[in-house]
Amino acid sequence: KSLGKVGIQPWGNVLAAVGGRTQSPRRTAEALPAESLKVADGFKVELLRSAQPGEGSWVSMTVDAKGRLIISPQGKEPMLRVTLDKDGKIAKMENIDLPVSGAMGLLYAFDSLYVNGQGPDGYHLYRLRDTDGDDKFDKLELLRRWQGSGDKSNEPEKWKGGTGEHGAHGIVLGPDQHLYIVCGNFVDVPADLAPTSRHKNYADDVLLPRMEDGNGFGAGRKPPGGYVVRLDKNGGNAELFASGQRNTYDIDFNKDGELFGFDSDMEWDWGAPWYRPTRVYHIVSGGDQGFREGSAKWPEEYPDSLPAAVNIGIGSPTGVKFGTASKFTGKYRQAAYVMDWSYGRILAVHLKPEGASYGGTFEPFVVGKPLNVTDLEFGKDGAMYFTIGGRGTVGGLYKVSETALHRETFAASTGPVHARLSRQGLEKFHGRQDPAALDFAWPQLDSPDRFIRYAARIAVESQPVGQWQKRALEESRKRASLTALLALARLGPREVQDDLLTALGRYWPGDLDDEQKLEALRVCQVALARMGRPGDSAIRDTTKSVDPLYPAKSWALNRELSQLLIYLEAPGVVKRTLDLRDAAATQEEQLHYMVALRNPKSGWSMDERKRYFAWFRSRPKTEDGGPTYPGGSSYFISRNTRHSDELLQWFKDVGREYGDGASYANFLKKLRAAALETLNEPEKTQIAAFFSDAPTDAVPKPKKEHKFVKEWKTADLLGDLDAASKGRDFENGREAFAAAQCFACHRFGNEGGAIGPDITAISSRFSRKDLLESMTEPSKVVSEQYQNITVIKKDGDDVTGRLVEETDTKLVLIPNQLTGEKVEVKKSDVQSRAASKLSPMPEGLINVLTKEEILDLIAYVESGGRKSHAAFQGK
pTM for the whole thing? Predict the structure, then answer.
């Protein structure tokens, strides 16, 4: 796919340009001025309103039947209804006086306002109606309860219901007059799903055990991950429509009636082989986008999932809306507009029909810094209206209108209609049994179009397996055979496994191209993962078929072959995998082989064991090519720190340098511990001696002692924030960052800890005033992803800290993140637990800094660690 980039002409590096401009701090509730924004040629932006005290931080929006905007703050403030005049200016603002707030999904339809928000019964799906005709909502109904993992007694309060940033989100009305709602990966699938659900039979489907996130985020959560559910207008007849997303915030239908979303990445995974970028994806009936927790995420090549339409890069997706309802011209009327909260940008995504799905390109449409965009709609005047806010930042409402006609078109909206109609015809059989389904779908199992093959397989899987099992085993067309055998691997009984593997093996090793080899390997993996380990004879036959392929010429094939052959315990697989690790082109490839090799307990020589563990104590090469690891061990392995050009470009697009994710360091620690568990006692003794001189990683420390200066308050420094814009000292800023213990908790560039959020690009979403308040008042706004919990014990004592481990019998908390000391609480002693309102970040960390050092610190944070930033020039 061809991706448009922020850094290419005619835009240049717009984020860097905005970041380099001297900005006045926002000392009151004032949104970023419109003149500070960069907008596509032929458009203009106007700031209509900054949220005033009591109006909250705006995160969700919809348009009612009269063209009024309905806006929800993230907190407990009332929702707002905004009337616009004929010029698109605000004529009236009024509160919605019903007890529902904190919405992350709004839709006006069927003379009702649908809200995913916090109401009298918790965070669920509500409906607001005007029953007496006075143009005011007066009736509130609970339509559907969302169940999160926290509704189970042994999990955190913060996950209860659909609440939170990984909860129940966007609501849209489909062409079929049903509600489509997207839920994040911490919301359980409804228990009352109709038997006609389009999407079923999901599982991790990984051959080797997955590793959980290094910091425990999402640990233990099972598929399907984020999902889209289809409901009637009363919130009933729930059907699971599609899944395998991570945490999509919003969705929308295009002019063709096709559904799209903008899915989030797991930014803590930067540097890991399973990292998946933010993506605009086509949500089809029965679709699985392949998200799984931890290391179990699926590569896009897996035929039991579907690829992105456009990979965007890094960011934090929020609002999604097609320009169909706009009065924009040319390609901008057809574009999908997607919002990135983290890096302050609205992108115009130009989707082009490709077969039964879509591909496309993207370009920046509106960019600012900080511009924490949250949602957008098109008004009756055809203009775009968008909001900013979230996590306590100032709310704002903007208008974007066209000032010049655009005649350029991107693609005819009709496109290859026949392919799309073929897919839609197959989707009619999804989730229901029909005598005509098999004869209709079976020929399409051989389609060259991936989306059609996928739809045909789901239609087949919707029929009783006994009706098509024999047909799948006897299918002779290669592509159709692989597709049918994948269906059988997913749904077939255990006793069919040997026949399935035999049918699969008739093509290996020489009769398949690389794409088909990947499909065949996936079929084999799913058959083994779902049906269990086969007998010795089948193990030998499968190993004999696959072993000659390893190593292959492509990274993708080696990735799959290494897992399968390690599972099969193939002779010599350890050495071959170590050889591939050492020859790997990127850090991500090296880490894949390290993760795979944590599993085998046998088949190792001691030299191979040492060779494996040497990677953990190695260091990157110096600029002159020599190793930085002291001692010159004969087992020194240069740990690769290179990355793909595509990954690095995603970082350049948003004006920042690459840095490993916040989970990377802890993941390596857990990986090493897991690998050590495979050793027998004599091996452990030898390896322990081997590690005796290993270097240790440490966060940067201050170079001098910093003593108490004063107990700084926000008001003490607010009037001096302009001085952080120029003439600052870079080295003093870095020293202040270390002295305030920021490195101990926060990832910054490629340094620091993983206790708090990565703050390398924090100035893209937070103003200078917000940065100051985060230092002086750390508990004012606490992201749920970094919240502590407070455990109340039956004896009246309480413990507050980060929950880092939980078993059936105990909770393990870290009360002080800086010391790392752990406290265990028996579950039998627990009376209750709830999310803490106090930040894990202690107060007073900047009290050892002078005013000038604090200003240098703010400049250092705003610069993203770049000495070339404008604030450090002219010192």
Answer: 0.85
